[in-house]
Design a protein that fits this description.
3 helices, alpha+beta, Lipocalin, 9-stranded antiparallel beta sheet
Length: 426
């Protein structure tokens, strides 16, 4: 019997279908065998190796931590010491460098091996907590990381990448105790930040004239010659500052600057940079000293001795602290008007607000409102505090302590300060 082409195809099709089913099954088995299982094994082995490395450092690891995707707040030092499940953290932001906090951590597989700090740690999560008032304020905080992708590691260094910020974070094996290391970091930081009354530094680096300005946010501006400008995030090191990433000046890379305690200045290759004096500083200093503070508490007149001490003087803040009241009062130096100024502010659950004591008694703690100290006519040492002109149709004549529940009385003393006059002792 002669078979037609159609009949032949009917007989062949089942064999073709079986062949493809067997072929696909064989391919699936081969893919599983060659890739899936070994890949997972490799990940598990890498996670195990990372944990063994973390635990292996007797003194722990120094973490060079930079919050914010733009490194807007500079870098900070933390010391991390790992056990099988826990991490114990010390930080330069602590009041006492020996203070340590323990919490949980984990190693996982997500875009590669990751190091995650799973439970709250007041030092590790300080820069990642959106409820932190610092940085960009409530709702954002310092916008830092607490989950990191492990990029690479050697016996003495681990390179991490923040999952949120993408910042590169280095962890280096510690050779000394965390207490000793942080003590030296804080010493360096104190030496550098205690220098006041200057605009910055200038000098020669790699044959190029440079000038440096340093605001208060651990960033510096470096101008090379008359054109090239670098905005650099930095952190404090054992002997100076180190940059988030190197910059090139005069054909050579620079990763930081040494600090000279002898000269109170930065150095580069034994060349000391020269301080640039701030002409405003002497004007700021003239207000320091002892005063008599006169004010009314309701209908009762008060006269108390107070002292105005220096607090901060840098490019972005020039402030004092007035001591002698039931609480330390923040006072600013107004550069434009060359006078003392008390602006509204919030601190530790209370507000220092301005108050219109005449009429409906309006009060406000909106930013920029305040009182300025005007020199009384015919005197050289009497300052009357009046409205700074920012409150629109209202006139601030007093300060009042306030809170979400009303007048704040947590200090146990006066809460209202009407018609303030400061008389400096001569």
């Amino acid at each position: 019997m002669k078979l037609t082409n159609k009949t032949r195809m009917k007989k062949i099709l089942p064999y073709i279908a079986c062949f493809f089913m067997l072929f696909l099954q064989a391919c699936n088995n081969e893919v599983d065998d060659l890739f899936d299982t070994p890949a997972q094994q490799r990940v598990n082995e890498e996670l195990k190796a990372c944990k063994e490395l973390l635990i292996s450092s007797e003194n722990g690891w120094v973490m060079e931590y930079y919050p914010s995707a733009n490194q807007s707040y500079g870098g900070y030092v933390m010391i991390l010491k790992f056990t099988d499940k826990d991490v114990t953290v010390q930080s330069e932001i602590a009041a006492n460098p020996s203070d340590a906090v323990t919490s949980l951590y984990s190693l996982k597989s997500d875009m590669g091996p990751t190091l995650n700090f799973d439970t709250y740690n007041k030092y590790l999560h300080y820069f990642a907590d959106p409820d932190n008032n610092g940085g960009a304020g409530l709702g954002k905080g310092y916008e830092g990381d607490y989950e990191f992708i492990i990029q690479s590691h050697t016996e003495n260094e681990i390179t991490l990448k923040g999952k949120k910020t993408k910042n590169i974070i280095k962890m280096k094996r510690m050779e000394t105790s965390g207490d000793a290391y942080l003590t030296e970091i804080i010493k360096t930081r104190t030496n550098i930040t205690s220098i006041q009354g200057i605009l910055g530094y200038k000098g020669e680096v790699n044959g190029q004239e440079v000038s440096i300005t340093i605001p208060s946010d651990r960033r510096m501006t470096i101008q090379v010659g008359t054109e090239q400008i670098f905005n650099v995030a930095y952190m404090y090191g054992l002997s100076g500052i180190q940059f988030y990433q190197p910059i090139e000046i005069g054909g050579n890379e620079i990763s930081g600057l040494e600090w000279s305690e002898t000269n109170n200045s930065f150095m580069w290759n034994e060349n000391t940079l020269e301080q640039i004096p701030d002409p405003i500083y002497p004007k700021y200093l003239k207000y320091l000293g002892n005063y008599n503070m006169n004010y009314f508490y309701g209908q009762t007149e008060r006269n108390i001795p107070v002292t105005l001490i220096a607090k901060t003087f840098n490019g972005s803040e020039k402030s004092y602290e007035l001591q002698g009241l039931p609480f330390p009062l923040q006072v600013s130096y107004n550069v434009e008007q060359d006078c003392l100024e008390i602006l509204t502010y919030q601190k530790d659950g209370y507000y220092v607000a301005v108050w219109e004591v005449i009429g409906n008694g309006t009060l406000s703690w909106a930013g920029g409102l305040g009182l300025i100290g005007k020199l009384k006519e015919g005197t050289s040492n009497v300052y009357e505090f009046v409205d700074n002109g920012v409150w629109g149709t209202n006139i601030a004549r007093a300060l009042i302590l306030w809170s979400a529940s009303g007048e704040y009385k947590g200090f146990g003393g006066d809460t209202r300060f009407q018609y303030i006059i400061l008389t400096k002792n001569q």
